[in-house]
Amino acid sequence: MKDIRLMKGNEAIAEGVIRAGCDGYFGYPITPQSEVLEYLMANKTKERTGMIVLQAESEIASIHMVYGGAAAGKRVMTSSSSPGISLMQEGISFMAGTELPCLLLNVVRGGPGLGTIQPSQSDYFQTVKGGGHGDYKMIVLAPASVQEMYDFAKLGFELAFKHRIQVMVLSDGAIGQMMEKVELDEQVPRWTDAEIKIKSPWATTGKTPDRERNIITSLDLNPVKQEIININLQKKFKHIQDTEVRFERIQCDDAEYLFVAYGSSARICQKAVLLGRERGIKVGLLRPITLFPFPTIELAKLAKQVKGMLSVEMSAGQMVEDVRLAVNGVVPVEHYGRLGGIMPAPDEVLNILEKNFIKEKSYEPHTN
Amino acid sequence: MKDIRLMKGNEAIAEGVIRAGCDGYFGYPITPQSEVLEYLMANKTKERTGMIVLQAESEIASIHMVYGGAAAGKRVMTSSSSPGISLMQEGISFMAGTELPCLLLNVVRGGPGLGTIQPSQSDYFQTVKGGGHGDYKMIVLAPASVQEMYDFAKLGFELAFKHRIQVMVLSDGAIGQMMEKVELDEQVPRWTDAEIKIKSPWATTGKTPDRERNIITSLDLNPVKQEIININLQKKFKHIQDTEVRFERIQCDDAEYLFVAYGSSARICQKAVLLGRERGIKVGLLRPITLFPFPTIELAKLAKQVKGMLSVEMSAGQMVEDVRLAVNGVVPVEHYGRLGGIMPAPDEVLNILEKNFIKEKSYEPHTN
Amino acid sequence: MSHIPTKDEICEPENMVYSRTCLLTDNALSYCPGCGHGTAHRLIMEVIEEMNLQADTIGVAPVGCSVLAYDFMNIDMQQAAHGRAPAVATGIKRLYPDKFVFTYQGDGDLAAIGTGETIHVCNRGENITVFFVNNGIYGMTGGQMAPTTLPNMKTATSPFGRDTETMGHPLKITELIANLPGTYFVSRQSVHTPANVRKAKKAIEKAISYQKLNKGLCFVEIVSNCNSGWKMTPLESNKWMEDNMFPYYPLGDIKVPK
Amino acid sequence: MSHIPTKDEICEPENMVYSRTCLLTDNALSYCPGCGHGTAHRLIMEVIEEMNLQADTIGVAPVGCSVLAYDFMNIDMQQAAHGRAPAVATGIKRLYPDKFVFTYQGDGDLAAIGTGETIHVCNRGENITVFFVNNGIYGMTGGQMAPTTLPNMKTATSPFGRDTETMGHPLKITELIANLPGTYFVSRQSVHTPANVRKAKKAIEKAISYQKLNKGLCFVEIVSNCNSGWKMTPLESNKWMEDNMFPYYPLGDIKVPK
Amino acid sequence: MTEEIIIAGFGGQGVLSMGKILAYSGMMQNKEVSWFPSYGPEMRGGTANVTVIISDERISSPILNKFDTAIILNQQSMDKFENSVKKGGVLIYDPNGIVRHPERKDINIYTIDAADEAARLGLAKVFNMLVLGAFLKLKPLIEPEYMRKGLEKSLPLRHHNSIPENEKAIERGKEIVKEIHLAN
Amino acid sequence: MTEEIIIAGFGGQGVLSMGKILAYSGMMQNKEVSWFPSYGPEMRGGTANVTVIISDERISSPILNKFDTAIILNQQSMDKFENSVKKGGVLIYDPNGIVRHPERKDINIYTIDAADEAARLGLAKVFNMLVLGAFLKLKPLIEPEYMRKGLEKSLPLRHHNSIPENEKAIERGKEIVKEIHLAN
Amino acid sequence: MATVKGEIIVNTERCKGCELCVPVCKEKTIAMSVNLNSKGYHFASSINADCNGCTNCALVCPDGAITVYRVKVN
Amino acid sequence: MATVKGEIIVNTERCKGCELCVPVCKEKTIAMSVNLNSKGYHFASSINADCNGCTNCALVCPDGAITVYRVKVN
Ligand SMILES: Cc1ncc(C[n+]2csc(CCOP(=O)(O)OP(=O)(O)O)c2C)c(N)n1
Ligand SMILES: Cc1ncc(C[n+]2csc(CCOP(=O)(O)OP(=O)(O)O)c2C)c(N)n1
Ligand code: SF4
Ligand code: SF4
Ligand code: SF4
Ligand code: SF4
Ligand code: SF4
Ligand code: SF4
Ligand SMILES: [Mg+2]
Ligand SMILES: [Mg+2]
């Protein structure tokens, strides 16, 4: 029988990582994601799978504990919410520079500063463009349901180890706090130390006579070597862009207008598509599931089909830049966002779409 | 007689802030910018102007000392280099949320991670898009000479207080470490406490009977109020975009091809423009001086004139996105960058420009 | 007067012997019923009022249940990031050496994420005053384990009790910083009985008046309850605090000026 | 043999009484001439060799002059961000409780930016070993003031000497963490004379072998020189260290198992 | 079919778990459900509320401004949510402790004396099940067998012996809910 | 006119200050100048180098791969920079301590026995000024009056009494520099 | 012999019903009301005339809800 | 009476000329060479046959440049 539960998003991803064979979680409480650590602690993971769970003294300590564990080849993770993730930026940049696989979770709340604890999507830039220093990317997964919070635990670890990269699950307070149905799957066994040596031969597990010592470092004082390291990093990101794009097309086939939205906003837009179709508007939704790699090619294709795109985000306009870069001026791309912890309503975003592309402006194809 | 000196960029900005009437510097050593703190310490600022200089225990402490001083109405600053700036992201987001004026300096080195201590421009995204959580912008000044390191001290404080915003001077190891000629100007007196009360009536200087208490906070648990706070922030950023754009046009009037470059890269491109003109190529350079606000309108205008733009950065391609967003598909925009602490040479970038737009690809105007 | 006065006769302004200080605003405190934060706020404001320091005071409160302290204290205040109040206060005090600058921090804030700032502000002997409300838990975020949580104590993140083997020992940060040459006066108090309230107020008075002497940092810990986090009634929690917290965090002065 | 042996006869492998451990790589150390980091490296590697721990050891070195330790120590190593080695080591040790995990940190690293991590790794009693090279200065970045810099000592950021009034007092972090229940063995050594080298090696041996007992954190401070930062010759700096550093940082065991 | 419900009251009244049982039951009956609590320091004030949505379609936003049904269990919640009921929607409240009763004429208002009844039964714990009964009487979305499954799933095993008691309370709630007719 | 120079040697040889005096003098003569040092832990190894550019135009990059002139003062620097001299450029070195002498035939090579001369004069400190003299002999970019101004500006006041000494050393350097002719 | 006589006034809207003031009153002057204030708390109130104005109750009240008065009675 | 006789070999390329080994040798066996190694350091070298193999010099050498040998002589 399938194991079906009603869970909070935060609980679902916690259960997800346990079942994905996670070795270690290091984290620090912050609303609206403290349930992740609480769930893991309540679930006696040490006894269930051997997974270690430790409350660190800060987010900075958390990310560097993750660094240590990841550098030793383990499946490790941390989670936090916006201010805590900001504190991790140096650590994330170090993990990027050392190409360490790990799972990160940001249950975004409204900023800037202490802001509010309500859901928001205003950390897109930080996550996708690089909040830390240097040229790097993480794979960014944007769940739009509690089920995806659960699913992306396993997927996240898989991608992280496949590409030796950090995978960030970019969620928000709504997805983290809400309960929905979740279908759970089987426990994946944790890797044994012997498996780790095979799967991650680069890991620092103790130098044995059969190999040279392993070193995890992001430093090279020689700029020529440092450039090569960076070029290789860029090649990896290019490869990921070419192979790992994920998105969902909702009523796109005949769409004349398009919503582009991820996470919570995508749920709103999905409803708005239904409403729009009721009103006779041929509107569709492209939901990026990976924010990096971004569905650039798909959007470029759709740009040839639709008359306008509306990027809906709970932010002042962040993902919209990636939509515009993909569309490259072919059709108008507008942005609609609510700020500070407020979620827009389906009819609200539909009205904006109408106002932008149908009612007021008469659309003219882009020339010159 | 004019006071002319040969100074390092790091020393020039240190001298600049003293003369700009800075009240306090809080910082932590890191290469390649430790000379800022060292110069201030050696210059007995307490005796010269009353300016306080304190070596903090970390970059995190530094930025929050700046927060405290700024919230009390003082002209305060910190400086660091890439990893240290990453650590300040939460603090910067807090200053954005509380609209505190301050001067920040990033003497960028190559990343990600510990990277290298050589010059780089790979922190553009972090600085311009927002490395901290939430929707915010800083004014970003990009000096291309030691003189500008000096000049932007005063300009930075002026802009910071004019708009109650954080001003980041985005420099790099080359500009920070090189010595060039600097022309110094007169000492600006520090504000007295009485002046502060008038110029910054919002500052927490002690509640007197003549006013309500002043509160500096970025928190509002009510999302409706939090949204209004955010909307007002966005209006401010819009106003800055409309009024504070700064750039330099070099041989743009008749240009058929355009370099877009800031800071050190702009110096290289300026030479490349000369070389190009010698080769008979009508090439110009647009040098953004403010990265936020970005010279979007100027670039959109130039897009109607030139046949192609090459964004030259010591990064894997960051500012190029803002160039593309400005140009919106009207002409091709390419990127050329060196990574990991390496600076490109003038002939190198000119060759790339030729290769991209003149020799191999025959240019076709962008339609559809 | 020899007749027994009526209630109305007694309740005249001139007979008032205790009322809320005017340095508390009219806003209702956001704390749970019986929470010691309220009393701690009141005492600090009483002393500032009595010492006539309102115009010279800048307070700093970071995140924690008391994040909204600025709604209640009628003084200029700055809200600080989690753990960073000591750095924020340093920034203020260095630039305004004549103002009275204090921080008001919880145990999660001061002894977990803010440990570095706490140690260094004490080590530098910044002339500020730190009020440290130790309730052995993260109240604000829903009752998670703090560095100060007692052994075997159950919290949201130690649901089977704090296991000192894996989760560390309760951190006596107050004793630690008392060792540093930069601290001048260090005291641990509580505010759960009238006698303790009186003592705590004395300590607060000292900590504030010493700041004028520029001798270093003054630090007053207030061991307090967290009814919600501990899942007890206020009266139960005060009893539990006496029985369990005080043996670990004994009340009294820890460092006094020589 | 009764004849006086020749140099060649003496210099035979079987007569070798001291040579560089094979756990040091062939790379030339990047340290300035006479810098104690080299000796400290050697001793740690000697002990790991003698205890046959190479295959079980994971070392962590953060930023500081010893950032390239991985170029010299022939073991698996992780380079950590400035100040975060204790957190990194925690991450490793929790997941590999049977490995030998150590950090190698400078005073700027361990006692400034890393103070929070240092206190908490000690408070949790992580079963790791911390080697702490205290040269009273930031060597790597060009000789700036560290928390451990002595009063009145001149550095790049205290060019007129450390003024304890405004810059704080030298932080005796080792004494501080010895107070925490999570630490098991805490010792302060130096490596500037043969006798001190022998003592330091003993302390390192203890700190490593105690890790097996899972009793908590072992901490060995090595008071060392920084010729470049102090602007002295190696011999001068060792003398200066004896005369000035040792009175403030007295050598010897600070906490030993009961 | 989509039913959007807010349940609001005091911390100790079982508001969140009532919502959870309802959502779980809906889920067992193969509906799409979502449950969204008030969270964070909001709770310091002592109030608690939860939004429950039960639908035949995928649910868009778990956070709403307008509701089909509001179940209101104290004065503060009445002040906050009376106006959030959609025109023609339902408001159910326990008048105990309510000073300012609802006044809207464009919605259907019901009361249930659940606190009194729970006290009468000597079973303070079933207070929220009585209220749930009232709701189910007015909006019979969930069939009793799924209600039971929901109870089974949402209560920890050690409380399963109280399921019959809970079911009885739900039935009793259905009986004692009363419609209020406001004079025009 | 643009002259791009690298000066490379040991830490104690006054490499950075030689560069600074040269740059300052150029600046006094109203030229554009830049001075760019090796920095950071590179210096731990004991080597030091500085790039000086003197030009009539605004200077583009202060960091270069190729130089008009290389002034080389130890073996490590010879290994590193011999090949960085532009074709037809100038390499000046002090042969003291040099094991592997330069071998390029497409550049002009000069030696100056500055260390010996400084020792002979009993003025170890003027070593770098002797070398600077050699450079100025070959590239007379700076007029003596500006050289003096450069010295005045770049030396702290308390060292101004040593200026004549330094000037003399520069002159002496001009005398003792020698061209090397490599056999083909 | 001069004795003292006290009275308290509880700001019932400010009171949160925590009951901390009850046990500290040696005169047993304070008890919790059966009524609720508008926030739903059973507030404290004075139930006898024995108050001596010792201020104990006010000192421990976290919400500063109690004002104390005292007069000397000869 | 059995005495010991020692010898040292200095890896001159590894030596950085710090001189730390010189004063710790009671036999005054070590002195700094006037020659430079390829890195430009005056390296240490053994200047007499009095070495007793005590290892002091090797213990303090930060660069591990000294290997010590010892034999018993009857
Ligand atoms: C960087 C960051 N991390 C985490 C949080 C979440 N947070 C807010 S307050 C707090 C702890 C509160 O505990 P304490 O300081 O003991 O105060 P109390 O509420 O118990 O009075 C935490 C973890 C935050 N706001 N910012
Ligand atoms: C976040 C960050 N801040 C600052 C630095 C620059 N930095 C590198 S090492 C160091 C201090 C080194 O001093 P110490 O730890 O005492 O080691 P030593 O070099 O003296 O052995 C500093 C400030 C950095 N690398 N990262
Ligand atoms: S949660 Fe605890 S600390 Fe916070 S207000 Fe409630 S009782 Fe006080
Ligand atoms: S700078 Fe100091 S600590 Fe660093 S290698 Fe040189 S002597 Fe050693
Ligand atoms: S003042 Fe004293 S006697 Fe009067 S009610 Fe309060 S505690 Fe009781
Ligand atoms: S102590 Fe204050 S809040 Fe608590 S019951 Fe008494 S009057 Fe009310
Ligand atoms: S081994 Fe002893 S005697 Fe021999 S050279 Fe070294 S210090 Fe001198
Ligand atoms: S101690 Fe070692 S490095 Fe120093 S001089 Fe002696 S042999 Fe050379
Ligand atoms: Mg607390
Ligand atoms: Mg050091």
Description:
- The complex is a heterooctamer, with two copies of chain A (368 residues), two copies of chain C (258 residues), two copies of chain E (184 residues) and two copies of chain G (74 residues).
- Chain A has 368 residues and is an alpha/beta fold.
- Chain A has helices at 9-19, 34-42, 45-48, 59-71, 82-87, 89-98, 124-130, 146-163, 173-177, 193-199, 223-243, 263-278, 296-303, 319-327, 346-359; strands at 3-8, 24-27, 52-55, 76-80, 102-108, 139-141, 166-172, 179-184, 215-216, 247-250, 257-260, 283-288, 290-292, 308-313, 333-337.
- Chain A folds into two domains: 3-194, Rossmann fold (3-Layer(aba) Sandwich); 249-358, Rossmann fold.
- Chain A starts with a strand and ends in a 9-residue tail after the last helix.
- Chain E has six helices and seven strands; from the N terminus they run E-H-E-E-E-H-E-E-H-H-H-H-E.
- In chain E, helix 2 (75-81) links the parallel strand 4 (67-72) and strand 5.
- Helices cover 12% and strands 38% of the residues of chain G.
- Chain G starts with a strand and ends with a strand.
- In chain G, 49% of the residues are buried.
- Classes of the chains: A alpha/beta (368), C alpha/beta (258), E alpha/beta (184), G mainly beta (74).
- The interface between A and B is large, with 73 and 74 residues.
- Bound molecules: thiamine diphosphate (2 copies), iron/sulfur cluster (SF4) (6 copies) and magnesium ion (2 copies).
- One iron/sulfur cluster is lined by residues 31-32, 35, 37, 65, 135, 139, 226-229 of chain C.
